[in-house]
Automatic annotation (TrEMBL):
Keywords: ATP-binding, Kinase, Nucleotide-binding, Phosphoprotein, Transferase, Two-component regulatory system
Ranges where the Histidine kinase domain occurs: 123-332
Organism for this UniProt entry: Aerosticca soli
The protein's name: histidine kinase
Enzyme kind, highest EC tier: transferase
InterPro entries tied to this protein: HATPase_C_sf, HATPase_dom, His_kinase_dom, HisK_dim/P_dom, HisK_dim/P_sf, PAS-like_dom_sf, Sig_transdc_His_kin-like_C
Domain of life where this protein originates: Bacteria
PANTHER family: SENSOR HISTIDINE KINASE (PTHR43065), SENSORY HISTIDINE KINASE_PHOSPHATASE NTRB (PTHR43065:SF16)
Matches recorded under CDD domains: HisKA
Enzyme Commission number, as recorded: 2.7.13.3
The reaction(s) this protein catalyses: ATP + protein L-histidine = ADP + protein N-phospho-L-histidine
One Pfam family here: HATPase_c
Molecular-function annotations in GO: ATP binding; phosphorelay sensor kinase activity
Length: 334
């Protein structure tokens, strides 16, 4: 039986696998199956050492089972079924019992790259289009018949969101999974976020602290909005009542192996309880959540979107507020 988190994990473009106490694969997601050139069931039982061409992987995995800490590797060779290899960054962390989670990020020219679109994700996109069409039709009818301006505005929001999701589904179905970069005004994107949050049943108090001198960036506005929604909803579900949105330019910022002359920093600060100390090191890993009913995927997906844009997502512990900071390049290579 597929669990809720496995259903979500099957939609991610990150390669994911569960490793048992004998250091053999017990499950992989469709993305990793495509990279390996294997069916998900065919991979079950393969030893971890057969995947990653690094002599210390097995030894460090055994230490992880004993010490319950995370291990990371940079630029490893992932062996594929046809005898080839793919360069990846890898992270391994302990879950319940003797189960380990392996997370792989494909590299291209030294930087994370989007993985091939899985058949599962294309199927999901296909299935979601019919309900979206019905939702859009109902919203159009409501917009025409509503007498109150507020109801017309809310119906317009439903229409806009349905169109955005339909466009995303179309991109997936046509295998155009990479971000569609265009000039984006970061404050206009944040105002779209504000409109969504104000339509929530219990909207938070929203504060703005924008730097109006910031230039446009090259980005996919819809994906950045998804990232922002994930962060905002995480904060609300954790008990925050006030959300502050800040934008700044920052100089000499290190993102991975690069040092950028200048970067955009977008802060999502809230008055919630903060992140427990025991979760901070693995906060952005899939399946890590501070809530009993959480899937642990919101932050993992948000980080994936940030990396698609050549950026990074970080947790900044502060005494008076909980802050997640998105860093994006203000300078891009030609």
């Amino acid at each position: 039986m597929t669990t809720d988190w496995q259903a979500w994990a099957e939609q991610m473009t990150t390669g994911l696998a569960l490793i048992d106490g004998a250091l053999r694969l017990s499950w992989i997601n469709p993305t990793l199956a495509e990279w390996l050139g294997l069916g998900p069931r065919s991979a079950v039982g393969l030893p971890l050492a057969a995947l990653l061409a690094e002599p210390t992987v097995a030894a460090q995995a055994r230490m992880l089972l004993a010490e319950r800490r995370a291990v990371q590797w940079r630029d490893l060779a992932l062996r594929t079924a046809d005898g080839g290899e793919r360069r990846v960054d890898a992270a391994l962390q302990g879950l319940a019992g003797d189960t380990l989670l392996l997370e792989l990020h494909a590299l291209a020219d030294g930087h994370p790259a989007a993985s091939p679109l899985s058949a599962t994700l294309r199927g999901f996109a296909h299935e979601v289009k019919n309900p979206l069409a019905g939702l859009r039709g109902a919203a159009q009818l409501l917009q025409r018949r509503a007498g109150e301006a507020d109801l017309k505005r809310l119906a317009g929001l439903v229409l806009e969101e349905a169109d955005r999701l339909a466009a995303l589904a179309d991109r997936l179905l046509h295998q155009q999974g990479a971000p569609r970069l265009a000039a984006v005004n970061i404050h206009a994107m944040l105002e779209r976020l504000v409109a969504r949050l104000q339509a929530e049943p219990a909207p938070p108090r929203l504060r703005h602290d924008y730097d109006p001198s910031l230039p446009d960036i090259r980005a996919d506005a819809d994906r950045l909005l998804q990232l922002a929604l994930n962060l905002a909803r995480n904060a609300l579900e954790a008990g925050a009542r006030t959300l502050t949105l800040r934008t700044r330019a920052e100089h000499a910022v290190r993102l991975g192996d690069r040092v950028l002359r200048s970067a955009l920093r977008v802060e999502f600060a809230d008055d919630g309880p903060g992140v427990p100390a025991e979760l901070r090191e693995t906060l952005f890993e899939p399946l890590v959540s501070g809530r009993a009913d959480g899937t642990g995927l919101g932050l993992a997906i948000a980080r994936e979107i940030a990396r698609e844009h050549g950026g990074e997502l970080r947790y900044l512990p502060r005494a008076t507020e909980t802050v997640f900071a998105l860093y994006l390049p203000l300078e891009r290579a030609p």
